[in-house]
Specification:
alpha+beta; five-stranded mixed β-sheet; five-stranded antiparallel β-sheet
Length: 781
């Protein structure tokens, strides 16, 4: 058969019924391929985007976004100082008024609570407006703005914008809307160096963010758009018009979002903006107060120094601004106005410190640390490098009365126990070889005097024996119980302890006397009333309390210290000018390097001290020659400052008397002992009279209060020494019908009256210390 040609297959078999595409049509994808590709691209893009969001890590906020200032406040809430480089005080959202929150949302992101972290429509609109020449516009949500402020830079680049979007999405997924808004409000810049809404509220209106009203909140929201240009206190007329327009825009937005009633909005007017204020630094007393508060916080382990350096703390002090001003004026009037370093170079070496304390609560109401913190950094109120002098003697009194101490011949010690006030009388019963024999102020002889008189006139020899009779370790422990730190320099059980060789601070001594004023209930001065960190309260430790000495002991000591002032021959007689019941004690130290007066009324305790510190070197030098005068005693300038301040601080207050001790009652918790009375007793036998002498014979007469008294320029004539008895020996008592004659204070009057124009406080040179004796405190007045 003949072969036949094969038949070709039908086209529908080779091409499934579709005609083969030829020419340019071959380059155009089919609709099926386009749909598949688009779907695959979207799926891949979504996956990659989701992977990017999942993998991205929110970086730590940069230091500039978290740096804050610490704000230090007086007890009435007024600002004392601000420390730190960045003016920021972060607060929680509940410490920002609702009106201020809504104002910011109306200005920046009205859909914040309804929408996500990124608003694509707003981004496209902002990009289109920028590209078409309508000006650069922002399309960022509040979340994006917070991310830019806290984590990124302000650079306008595509890469930074992409980072912003990814981090914003991550932040929105991990933080609540409230947290994001609070963070945004705390990181945004408002002008005038103010970061965060709390700093802005203070800068522009002098109020806290919690009290911002709708008009004020809308103005702060206005500033976010152009802080410097919209500052009404410095803006141009055009700037003011633009700021007003923006302010109205914000308020209208609040009405539109139902955050503000239309009627209330219509009644609003542009708020008055305060003038820019200088930064409150540490000049004057502010630095001393801030440093003292820092020391308190660190010592009580409330805040460490590293945390304080990070900032964010709002610390309210116990300082009363009125009392603080009174104390500064008193130091100025009574001391610094009289100093003239240009004419008298030694006047540049004079430093003063003072503290005033509420004896019931322990609150420090005023503190004077020096002329100016920026010139003298050492706080004279808290330093612990100068001897306290005879202001320590009330501690020895309290120790003796509280412990039921007895004299060397077994008699119970009372305020009327008789001691030998002979100058350089050796202490009996001690272990020092040779016996400790301190000099009295000015080498004066006093003879037989009661403990009351020894307190009034600050007789060193009597107190040296009193401490030995009590027990030196007991005196030390009583000092600690009353409030001196256990590690106080030179607080050792040595024979010179009662004369004030230890070195407490002015603040420490205020605490000791406050405890006595508080009937023996321990008072520990405190300086910090409250602490907040980023708006959250930091717990404070409970105020330290407890019984230091018995109530009867404290009242007996207080009664005796009243004589220091009330006795016309007492070392603190100048404080009589206060005109109300007061108790106190003077102190003047070896070499006249420091002089003290610590005193109190039932309402207030104040401690004042002067220190000789060589300008430039910090070495301890004499106070003698201050303001052109002679020796400076505690009853001079310190007592004058104390009286001037207390007069101002207590002005208008009712006069109150101290509660007297129970008549004839022994000190609480004291060991019982035989009552005093006539009979063979020794040199410490009690006086047969309880009448307080008004002044020792021949005591210096009072002089006008505007100038210190003039003491003799040569040592007084020494009285015949009283024989020092051996321990355990007794001597006949003086005849009982006749009270012992108050010994003469051999202080001859000056050759001429003092000049009010050139007050002086001259006195004999400090005597040499006895060989082999512990260091004696020379000068008690």
């Amino acid at each position: 058969m003949p072969r036949t040609a094969s038949r070709p297959l039908p086209r529908r078999v080779l091409h499934s019924g579709r005609p083969h595409r030829q020419g340019w049509r071959r380059l155009v994808p089919t609709w099926r391929f386009a749909l598949f590709s688009t779907f695959a691209a979207l799926l891949l893009g979504t996956g990659l985007f989701a992977l990017g969001v999942a993998l991205v890590k929110v970086p730590d906020a940069h230091a500039a976004a978290t740096a804050q200032r610490n704000t230090w406040l007086y007890r009435d809430g007024t600002v004392l100082a601000q420390t730190g480089q960045t003016n920021r005080q972060s607060v929680s959202l509940d410490q920002v008024s609702t009106d201020a929150q809504h104002a910011v949302l109306a200005a920046e992101d009205r859909g914040f609570y309804r929408e996500g972290a990124v608003n694509p429509a707003a981004l496209l609109r902002a990009g289109w407006n920028t590209a078409t020449g309508k000006g650069a516009q922002g399309g960022s949500t509040i979340t994006q703005q917070y991310v830019k402020n806290a984590y990124l830079t302000q650079q306008q680049t595509i890469s930074r914008k992409v980072q912003e979007i990814f981090i914003a999405l991550k932040v929105d997924a991990t933080l609540s809307k409230q947290e994001i808004l609070a963070n945004y409000l705390n990181t945004t810049y408002y002008g005038r160096g103010a970061y965060g809404i709390q700093a802005a509220a203070q800068a522009y209106f002098g109020v806290d963010a919690a009290t911002l009203d709708p008009a004020q909140g809308a103005y702060l929201a206005t500033l976010l758009n152009a802080p410097s240009a919209y500052d009404l206190s410095t803006a141009t007329e055009a700037g003011k018009r633009a700021a007003t327009a923006r302010w109205n825009y914000v308020l209208d937005g609040m009405v539109k979002e139902n955050w503000l009633a239309a009627a209330d909005r219509a009644a609003l007017t542009l708020p008055t903006v305060r003038a820019p204020q200088p930064a409150l630094g540490l000049a004057g007393q502010a630095g001393y107060l801030v440093d003292a508060a820092k020391d308190y916080l660190v010592a009580h382990q409330l805040v460490d120094e590293a945390a304080l350096a990070k900032g964010g703390y709002r610390i309210t002090l116990s300082i009363d601004p009125a009392r603080q001003a009174d104390l500064q004026r008193s130091v100025q009037r009574q001391l610094t106005d009289k100093l003239d370093p240009n004419q008298r170079p030694g006047d540049a070496d004079i430093q003063a410190g003072a503290v005033s304390v509420d004896p019931k609560s322990g609150a420090v109401l005023a503190l004077y640390g020096g002329d100016d913190y920026t010139e003298h950094f050492v706080d004279n109120a808290t330093r612990r490098d100068y001897q306290a002098g005879s202001t320590f003697k009330p501690i020895a009194l309290a120790a003796a009365l509280e412990s039921g101490a007895r004299t060397q011949d077994g008699q119970a010690i009372t305020p009327d126990t008789v001691y030998d006030g002979a100058n350089r009388r050796p202490v009996q019963g001690g272990s020092a070889k040779p016996p400790y024999a301190p000099p009295n102020e000015g080498e004066r002889e006093y003879g037989r005097i009661t403990l009351r008189q020894a307190t009034d006139w600050s007789v060193n020899t009597a107190f040296a024996q009193l401490a030995q009779d009590t027990g030196l370790e007991k005196v030390k422990q009583t000092a600690i119980a009353l409030g001196l730190p256990a590690d106080t320099n030179e607080l050792d059980p040595v024979p010179s302890l009662p004369l004030g060789v230890s070195m407490p601070s002015v603040l420490d001594m205020a605490g000791v006397y406050a405890t006595l004023d508080n009937d023996g209930q321990r008072i520990t001065p405190w300086l910090v009333e409250s602490v907040k960190l980023n708006g959250t309260d930091v717990p404070l430790p409970p105020k330290r309390s407890g019984r230091a000495v018995g109530e009867q002991t404290a009242r007996q000591v207080t009664e005796m210290l009243q004589g220091v002032i009330a006795d016309d021959g007492g070392t603190g007689w100048r404080a009589q000018d206060l005109g109300r019941p007061a108790a106190g004690k003077t102190g003047t130290t070896d070499g006249n390097r420091s002089a003290w007066f610590v005193g109190y009324t039932p309402e207030l305790v104040t401690s004042v001290a002067m220190f000789g510190e060589q300008a430039g070197t910090g070495q301890q030098v004499t106070l003698s020659g201050t303001a052109g005068g002679g020796r400076v005693n505690g009853g001079g300038y310190p007592a004058r400052i104390w009286t001037d301040y207390m007069t101002a601080a207590l002005d208008g207050k009712a006069v109150r008397a101290f509660t007297p001790p129970s008549a004839g009652a022994p000190a609480e918790d004291a060991a019982a002992g035989p009552s005093t009375g006539p009979g063979a007793a020794g040199p410490h036998s009690p006086a047969p009279t309880h009448r307080r002498p008004t002044a020792p014979p021949h005591a210096p007469s009072r002089v006008p209060s505007h100038g210190p008294s003039t003491a003799p320029t040569a040592p007084p004539t020494a009285a015949p020494p009283v024989p020092s008895p051996s321990p355990g020996t007794t001597h006949p008592a003086p005849p009982t019908p006749t009270p012992p004659t108050t010994p003469a204070r051999p202080t001859p009057p000056p050759s001429q009256p003092p000049s009010p124009e050139a007050p002086t406080e001259t006195g004999p040179p400090a005597p040499a210390r006895p060989s082999g004796s512990p260091p004696a405190l020379v000068g008690a007045a």
